[in-house]
Design brief:
Number of helices: 51
Pfam families: Flavodoxin_1, NIR_SIR, NIR_SIR_ferr, POR_N
Strand order of the largest sheet: 3-2-4-5-7-6-15
Bound molecules: iron/sulfur cluster
Radius of gyration: 40 Å
Biased composition (Low complexity): 246-258
Largest sheet: 7 strands, mixed
Distance between the termini: 51 Å
Family: Belongs to the nitrite and sulfite reductase 4Fe-4S domain family.
InterPro entries: Flavdoxin-like, Flavodoxin/NO_synth, Flavoprotein-like_sf, NiRdtase/SiRdtase_haem-b_fer, Nit/Sulf_reduc_fer-like_dom_sf, NO2/SO3_Rdtase_4Fe4S_dom, NO2/SO3_Rdtase_4Fe4S_prot, NO2/SO3_Rdtase_4Fe4S_sf
Function: Catalyzes the reduction of sulfite to sulfide, one of several activities required for the biosynthesis of L-cysteine from sulfate.
Shape: globular
Number of strands: 51
């Protein structure tokens, strides 16, 4: 039989069964309480409750986030709520307790610390109006938990059930109590009545007069109407039957208890529905007699069922005992056992023990009746550690009970003696009892004797464990970085603070007090120094001079700290007593950076006073308040839990520095705010955002939540310095650029709403919503009516086309369909589903619905409300409506077979629902599939004719031809050499975007328009345009930059981008997050750094790459010169770039639009190339540039003089592929032959020209050089190039590659200069709290005089450091941990593209995920003994292949969010393509495949055998011989062919 081992489980189970909602208070969301694991398991098992109509809910709340605030809203909405918590929440919750006492809430409290709890937390709240029940054994904890719930429901009043879980854990296991008994105990009728009521109370501050009351029927009201005069419990109470009171009321029983009935509402005279029409009904507050009577009834039921009986006071001991001990606290079982075992020599033999079960209301008479008449003396032992009165509260209770009690005959008033009970161990319990009873028996017993130890064992360890979530350490690390040794956090967790519990020491108010004391201490020290200076008591002269200087600057942190060490040094050599005295407090010479750390608990009412005290004090104290509430949680938040805006609160004070920051939003801004806060003389409040749902959330989730919150204005980044004006600066700095407009709009609206609410207070909280919905409804109606009006003049049948569209395809299809309908004479109207007034649906004649598919088979945003209405409506009658549905989706979007149902689900659901509502289908549903040759158009072109046929308009003559869609080729031709309307687009401030055709053209200028994918859905939901921003890619041949250029790039990223830089796989700088307004300044800044961006993207020759070869400087110089020559030779000639980006804005110098400027493009012509074109140079033996993977790959050949002689030329390499489209494939370059170095640019030019003229310009998926060569044949192509060029390729020379990865660490070149290759994971240069890499590199660039070279594997080489500068450089490297290259071989050889959040083509994460995946594989690598072995692993977010995945030994290519195709068998030095091994696999499967494979490789590989080769030898994958063979003999067919 299942058994219960702990009180936590016993109580959690009953709370769950007896509630609609359990508020589970936990130390942190990642740390369980003694109840929470059980509660969670019930929820997970979906265990049914006893009183809840649906499944009971459990809500976890942090202990310091004002947990009882969570009770109000649900309980007022008729939910039966209970709370499981420990005693630490009670005192801070006192204001809530007084109000909640009048609701039937049950709070189960486990006393803390569990080994030696402090009962003062109970006695301190004894007057709050709750009923208090105490459990002393494990069995009692279950029985009294049931009693508590039953009593709360019956009485309508709150019950606190408390117990010492630590003691109860020693008891024998108990069985689970039968649900039936609980059902019997709980007044289910009362529960239902409560659940059906809604309370109108809203305030949680003021007393609203609510009093739990009873409806009393007929004359019975008089029976119990004597609240002030305690009476003996009536016999009737003892006879309370075992059925709920209300049920008996119906049977007209005549007992007092049967005829009263609880009224759940305040002071209302509402009669119980059970009252008969002839009886009069009155209400009165619930009295202590009612509680006593109800509890007796409850306990009678328990006794009937279990034979266990309970009384308000429990007495154990002989019936003729003459003395007894009243225990409040301590382990009564332990005391009981000692008394039982007492011998005649023991003074405590045959004494009784009294313990309270019903602590409040305190029914003194019950106490007397429980204790034998023979008892003459009672010792009252209270375990109250925080004593505020001379006499213990329980002692006073007893004294009051005895005083003037109406004693029965033969009973004397016992003598009462109070004791303070300390910690009593099993071995000292006899000693304690002896002390107590010897005193008690003495003639003049002493009051208030202390018994036991005042300190419990290992208090700190036993204490309730507070945890600072790991995530929040980010801010702590930054504080340490900024302030170093000066940092003093006054309320730091886990910091030893003698004699203070860790909970108290972490309390901000405590910390504040400590800081004040510290600052006063230092002030005294300063005064002391000033005095000492006057006395000149030093042996030497120096101390006086330095101390004077120091005393003047003591309050200026920078100056005082700079002088401090000098002062200390002078004092140390002085040797005088005066000097020694000062040195004893030498730490005070430094001025600390004083910080208090708090959580968003301070934003709730109960914690807010902490902020208030600090701000109001005006003291120079800095507060860092970490807010972790995610945006999504905020959006769904319970209104009564709404937090105070601490920032605004502090700003209103006017004397505080306030900043709102987010480490995952802007690292730099956090640093800035921390420094400014510390400098500010006065209180500073830094509100730091770090949203997470669970402390175990990974950083990516936190980053995404942060971005959403900042972008949507929920967490704007700003800094407020009330004294900035004095320096002529703005007080308020808004640092989150993008929200500026939205924030302003919000403020305006907020202001308007405030006015409105003032005028119409009755609408109060609901006004904004109802106003908004009203406006939306009116807008819908207006739009529809306007449309109808427009259509009035037209003839023909009506056709309403409604669309739901996320990416615009469904919308443009709908609009095109409506236009075509018009051409066929139909009165067609088109609008988004959510703009359509749903009530008009039944009056439609012909309805066409076009929807795409979002997320997990969901409706796109602008169709969700429509679908909800259609889905849930029961009164839509569509019997006269004819409809057709076309759905757009991707049959391969969902990798798992069981998820296939999501393919086009919205369209299918809609069709089925309209049929169910009586609609008639015009034609069967059309399914557009992105996997079809023409994507969704394939299905659409079959479906549309059927629709016209069904509508009878298929044979209409004379329909005009539609213009063909604009192609990229058209855009290029019409652009006037890449001008288009880019300038107009840049000047349009109404949108963050530029037009679609300009977006194609800007690529040629080196910039792509993107939108932040992390924010896309949320912004759509808010009706905002996507968060557009631009990526800028520099053109940097060979990846060589000077240190000065690095600093300039760094500044661009900081000031104009998103504070990060990407070093790309094409050896260049890439900036992301540049908003439109900053695009031109960024371009100008790049050009000022003597770089350009022209032709960094687009259908032109891109950045020419070249090996970095740090060890051969001379050879590098030769090769690099060629790379530059080729780069410059193939640059486009258009002047549009300079016109648009570089020239001044005065409008005079140039005319940018129109045809006024006629450029010439001698190499490219007006249509440029059919597709992008890439050239790279590799220097054997390192193929670090992946020479086979580019349109042209040049292999440098050394001459006899060790100088560059020429190149072997490869042509036709390329990576881009489309999933499931076998006509696309990656390809390695084909050998053309050898060309001398002087001629190489001409050879490249002519290869490019053949591609220009023969590349496929109709199908961009077939336009790369690789297809041109395969279509022509390699030899024909070579001949064609030679005929263009007029020269021939010589036979290729021999070469040998050994790897395609970088060599990390220091290398020396032949000139004696040093080069250091950093490991920059996936090329991302950024600062994080753990690793301020960007700052480190900036500091390095400031002193470095050589170059910084970007490697094609996205790493970085500090190039050309002379020996003399080595120590300085090495020290800096060490300081910023930049010298760390001690990573696994797997990580060092890995590479990922950007993908989310900026790349518009990404289907899955890449750069943000690969590092995590590698971490998960590193154990396997270690176990296999492969830590130092390199396995080339690459990942990309889509098959475009930016990180060149197809030549990696193992690759993962994004297929859908979280799903990847896996490829194996690539050549170690990039010479061989890999092949599909598994399609659409998720992390779990990846790990399941990779871990054993790595192990096997470790065990079974041959000497020197590479991973890719091993996979082929083992037969895991077939070898890929060439591009055309890529899709053949794969290990798994892609799903379309299944
Ligand atoms: S491979 Fe795809 S997802 Fe990755 S950056 Fe390139 S286009 Fe974007």
């Amino acid at each position: 039989m299942a058994t219960i081992l702990t009180a936590g489980e016993a109580v959690a189970r009953i709370a769950y069964l007896a509630s609609d909602l359990v508020i589970s208070v936990q130390p942190s969301l990642a740390t369980d309480s003694e109840f929470s694991t059980f509660l969670r398991s019930y929820t997970q098992r979906k265990a049914p409750g006893v009183v809840s109509k649906d499944l009971p809910e459990v809500e976890a709340v942090r202990h310091n986030a004002d947990p009882l605030l969570s009770v109000f809203q649900p309980i007022r909405n008729g939910k039966i709520v209970s709370v499981t918590a420990n005693s630490s929440i009670l005192l801070p919750s006192i204001p809530h307790l007084y109000k909640l006492a009048q609701y039937p809430v049950v709070i189960h409290v486990s006393l803390q610390p569990s080994v030696y709890p402090d009962y003062s937390e109970i006695t301190a709240i004894r007057q709050c109006g709750f009923t208090f029940l105490q459990s002393d054994t494990l069995q009692e904890s279950q029985d009294l938990a049931m009693s508590a719930h039953a009593l709360a429901l019956k009485s309508g009043k709150g019950v606190i059930h408390f117990f010492n879980g630590g003691n109860l854990g020693q008891d024998d296991p108990i069985p689970y109590e039968d649900r039936e008994l609980l059902k019997q105990l709980l007044d289910v009728d009362a529960a239902r009545r409560f659940q059906s009521t809604k309370s109108s109370e809203t305030t949680i501050y003021a007393d609203d007069g609510r009093i739990a009351s009873l409806s009393v029927v007929g004359s019975v009201a008089q029976v119990n109407a004597s609240p002030s005069s305690p009476s003996r419990p009536s016999q009737a109470a003892e006879k309370v039957p075992s059925t709920p009171v209300s049920a008996n009321a119906r049977s007209n029983s005549s007992t007092a208890s049967d005829s009263s009935h609880r009224n759940s509402s305040e002071g209302s005279g509402r009669a119980s529905s059970l009252a008969t029409s002839i009886e009069s009904v009155t209400t009165r507050p619930v009295t202590f007699e009612d509680i006593d009577r109800m509890l007796n009834g409850i306990w009678a039921i328990i006794k009937d069922a279990t034979k266990r009986s309970y009384e308000p006071f429990s007495y154990t001991g002989p019936a003729n005992a003459t003395s007894a001990i009243f225990l409040f606290g301590a382990d009564s079982a332990l005391f009981g056992q000692a008394i039982d075992e007492a011998t005649s020599n023991d003074v405590f033999q045959k004494v009784g023990i009294i313990t309270p079960r019903l602590y409040r209301p305190w029914i003194g008479l019950k106490l007397l009746s429980s204790v034998p008449k023979t008892v003459k003396k009672i010792a009252v032992a209270e375990q109250i550690r925080r004593k505020t009165t001379k006499w213990g509260p329980v002692l006073l209770d007893l004294l009051m009970s005895m005083k003037g009690a109406d004693l029965e005959a033969g009973r004397e008033t016992p003598q009462i003696v109070g004791y303070q009970l300390g910690y009593v161990e099993p071995v000292t319990v006899r000693q304690a009892l002896r002390g107590i009873f010897q005193n008690l028996m003495s003639e003049k017993p002493l009051q208030n004797l202390e018994v036991g130890r005042s300190q419990g064992p290992n208090l700190q360890e036993q204490d309730y464990v507070l945890e600072q979530p790991d995530l929040e350490n980010a801010y702590m690390k930054m504080l340490r970085q900024v302030f170093g040794d000066r940092l003093h956090v006054a309320n730091q967790l886990r910091k030893d603070d003698a004699g203070i519990s860790s909970q108290l020491a972490a309390n901000p108010e405590y910390g504040f007090g400590k800081l004040i004391a510290r600052s006063e201490h230092r002030q005294r020290f300063i005064n002391e120094v000033k005095e000492v200076v006057k006395t000149r008591d030093f042996t030497t002269d120096a101390p006086n001079k330095w101390l004077k200087k120091w005393a003047l600057e003591a309050e200026d942190a920078e100056k005082a700290n700079a002088t401090a060490s000098d002062v200390i040094m002078r004092l140390s050599t002085d040797g005088s007593p005066a000097a020694s005295k000062l040195l004893a407090s030498k730490a005070l010479f430094y001025r600390e950076a004083n910080w208090l750390i708090g959580s968003d608990a301070w934003a709730y009412d109960l914690g807010n006073s902490g902020v208030h005290h600090v701000v109001a004090s005006g003291q120079n104290v800095n507060m860092l308040i970490i807010d972790s509430q995610p945006y999504s949680e905020h959006a769904a938040a319970d209104v009564t839990r709404r937090k105070k805006d601490i920032g605004l609160y502090a700003m209103n004070f006017g004397n505080a520095y306030v900043a709102s920051v987010a480490v995952y939003g802007s690292y730099t801004q956090v640093l800035q705010a921390m420094i400014e806060a510390e400098k500010f003389e006065g209180p500073s409040v830094v509100m730091a955002y770090l949203p997470y749902n669970r402390e175990t959330d990974n950083p990516l989730t936190v980053l995404q939540e942060t971005k959403k919150s900042i972008d949507l204005g929920y967490w704007p980044l700003y800094r407020w310095n009330p004294r900035a004006e004095e320096k002529g600066e703005e007080n308020f700095q808004l640092d989150s650029e993008r929200v500026r407009a939205e924030l302003q709009a919000f403020l305006k609206r907020d202001n308007y709403m405030t006015q409105l609410m003032k005028r119409h207070p009755q609408f109060a909280a609901n006004i904004s919503e109802s106003y908004g919905s009203e406006v939306r409804a009116t807008q819908k109606r207006k739009a529809k009516d306007a449309y109808s009006k427009l259509l009035e003049g037209l003839y023909g049948a009506p056709m309403t086309v409604l669309f739901a569209s996320d990416n615009g395809n469904a919308e443009s299809l709908a609009k095109r369909l409506a236009n075509r309908g018009k051409a066929r004479g139909l009165k067609s109207m088109v609008m988004s589903m959510d703009d359509y007034p749903i009530e008009d649906l039944p009056s439609e004649e012909n309805l066409v619905l076009i929807t795409s598919t979002a997320g997990q088979g969901e409706f796109p945003q602008n169709g969700r409300a429509f679908w909800e209405a259609v889905k849930t409506s029961t009164d839509l009658d569509l019997t006269t409506v004819k409809f057709a549905v076309f759905a757009l989706g991707d049959s391969h979007y969902w990798p798992r077979k069981e998820d296939k149902i999501y393919y086009n689900k919205p369209g299918k659901d809609l069709g089925a629902r309209l049929l169910a509502l009586g609609g008639k289908s015009l034609t069967e549903i059309g399914l557009g599939d992105d996997q079809d040759p023409d994507q969704y158009q394939t299905g659409y072109s079959e479906w549309e004719p059927k629709l016209w046929q069904a509508l009878g308009v298929d044979k209409v003559e004379g329909i005009p031809d539609e213009p063909p869609p604009l192609t990229n080729e058209d855009i290029k031709i019409q652009s006037n050499f890449l001008r288009g309307t880019i300038v107009e687009g840049l000047n349009d401030v109404s949108t963050g975007a530029i037009s679609a055709s300009d977006a194609q053209l800007t690529k040629f200028h080196g910039t792509y328009m993107e939108d932040d994918r992390d924010l896309r859905d949320e912004r759509k939901a808010q009706g905002l345009e996507p968060a557009y921003a631009f990526m800028i890619r520099c053109r940097l041949p060979g990846g060589v930059a000077t240190a000065d250029q690095w600093l300039k790039m760094d500044a661009i990223a900081q000031n104009l981008g998103n504070e990060t830089m990407k070093l790309t796989t094409r050896q260049t700088f890439q900036f992301h997050g540049v908003v439109k307004g900053k695009l031109k300044p960024a371009m100008q800044a790049i050009n000022k750094a003597l770089m350009t961006t022209i032709a960094a993207c687009g259908d032109v020759n891109r950045n020419v790459m070249c090996s970095v070869i740090p060890s051969q400087s001379q050879f590098h110089a030769d090769v690099y010169a060629c790379a530059k020559r080729i780069n410059d030779h193939l640059l486009p000639s258009t002047t549009a770039y300079h016109e648009i980006w570089i020239r001044d804005d005065d409008g005079k110098k140039t005319q940018v639009a129109g045809d006024a400027v006629q450029d010439q493009e001698p190499l490219y012509g007006s249509t440029y190339l059919p597709r992008k074109f890439k050239i790279t140079i590799a220097v054997p033996p390192h193929n670090d540039t992946d020479v086979y993977a580019h349109d042209i790959g040049l292999i440098a050949i050394k001459g006899a003089d060790d100088r560059l002689e020429g190149f072997n030329v490869l042509a036709g390499g390329g990576m881009g592929v489309t999933h499931n489209m076998k006509k696309t494939y990656p390809r390695t370059g084909s050998m053309m032959g050898y060309v001398s170095k002087d001629n190489i640019h001409r050879a490249c030019e002519n290869i490019m020209l053949v591609q220009r003229d023969h590349g496929d310009r109709k199908d961009r998926k077939h336009a790369r050089l690789k297809y041109t060569i395969d279509d022509m044949g390699v030899d024909v192509f070579r001949t064609k190039v030679e005929s263009y060029w007029g020269e021939s390729f010589a036979p290729a020379k021999s070469f040998h590659f050994t790897s395609n990865i970088d060599t990390f660490g220091w290398q020396k070149d032949e000139n004696g200069l040093n080069h250091f290759t950093f490991f920059i994971e996936n090329g991302r240069i950024e600062d994080t709290a753990d690793f301020p890499m960007m700052t480190g590199l900036r500091e390095l660039a400031k002193i470095h005089r050589g170059e910084l070279r970007l490697t094609p594997n996205q790493h970085l080489v500090l190039s050309g450091v002379p020996d003399a500068q080595l120590p300085e450089i090495k020290e800096l490297l060490k300081k910023y941990h930049l010298d760390n290259t001690d990573f696994s071989g797997l990580r060092l050889s890995s590479s990922a593209c950007v993908a989310f959040p900026t790349c518009g083509l990404a289907m899955a994460e890449s750069e943000r995920y690969l590092p995590e995946l590698i971490t998960k594989l590193e154990n396997a690598v270690e176990d296999a003994g492969l830590r130092h072995d390199s396995i080339v692993m690459r990942m990309t977010g889509c098959p475009n292949g930016c990180a060149r995945p197809w030549v990696a030994e193992v690759a993962f290519v994004g297929k859908a969010y979280g799903a990847y195709n896996m490829y194996l068998g690539g050549g170690y030095h990039g010479q061989r393509l890999n092949k599909l091994y598994r399609s659409s696999i998720k992390e779990e499967e990846i790990l399941d495949i990779m871990r054993p494979l790595i192990k096997r490789y470790g065990l079974e590989r041959k000497e020197g055998e590479r991973f890719g080769d091993f996979c082929i030898r083992m037969g895991l994958i077939n070898e890929t011989y060439e591009g055309k063979d890529f899709h053949a003999n794969t290990a798994e067919e892609e799903e379309e062919e299944e």
